[in-house]
Amino acid sequence: MDDFDLKLLQALQEDGRLTNNDLADRVGLSASQCSRRRAALENAGVMPGSNASTVGLGQIFYGATLEAMFNPPGVPTHLAPCCKVPNPGDLDPRTPDIVVIPNVGVVYTGSTKKQSEHGGYAIDDTNVMLLVSNPSIKGRTDTSFVETSQVAPTILQALGLNPSSLQAVQIEGTPVLPGIDFSGNQNNQNNQNNQNNQN
Predict the structure, then answer these.
(1) Distance in angstroms (rounded) separating the CA atoms of residues 105 and 69
(2) 19 touches 25 (CB < 8 A)
(3) What's the CA gap between 15 and 87, in Å, rounded?
(4) How many CB atoms lie within 10 A of CB 158?
């Protein structure tokens, strides 16, 4: 797939009844080129309104829609040391060129035992409940936006360790989960005392 195929898919996702002439105007190809590409996409099973329902195709992210969530895909022009996280807006080799999201409830598997899928971009994958339990924490619901990357620094803080000792926290500035205070935790105090005694 190239940029023209992606533009065709995006246009047809918005309106699956577009004619090849309409598509040609939208994507900058001739009507005959649109017809050939449309047929190829239909045969591949990714065309909205054709085999898309068979494969459960929901949404396609590429270009600006993908860059709203991630750095632009590509190899940086100036290579940094290994494992350096690119700055916002820099080309990022970790970003995919395209992300295809299946419809809710679609799981790609040959197994009859598999019951769920995790780690995708669907709403039920990206909006996950997190339960934090500790006798020193008063029960409440916090609807702050958090990311799973905040769990590791929070665990370190709960153990009385410095979250900034993680290289990823230093590089990305990952905060601990909001609204959690472990300062009264006895284990935390004991760990802090042990650290102070070692220094």
Answers:
(1) 23
(2) no
(3) 36
(4) 21
Give the closest residue to 178 by CA, choosing from 127, 126, 137: 137
Q: In 3D, which of 101, 94, 132 has the Cα closest to residue 117?
A: 101
Can you tell me the distance from the alpha carbon of 86 to that of 77, in angstroms, rounded to the nearest whole number? 11
**Residue 73 bridge partners (DSSP):** 92
20-58 tens-digit pLDDT: 898 889 889 999 998 888 888 776 666 655 555 566 777
User: CA of 73: how far to CAs of 4, 55, 83, 84, 122, in Å?
Assistant: 17, 26, 16, 15, 20
Q: How high is the pLDDT of residue 6?
A: 83
Q: Which residues form the domain of 189?
A: 148-198
Give me the CATH number covering residue 26. 1.10.10.10
Structure tokens given for 53: 């329902």
Decide if 128 is inside a domain: no
Q: What length is written for the chain?
A: 199
Same domain, 1 and 47: yes
pLDDT of residue 37: 86
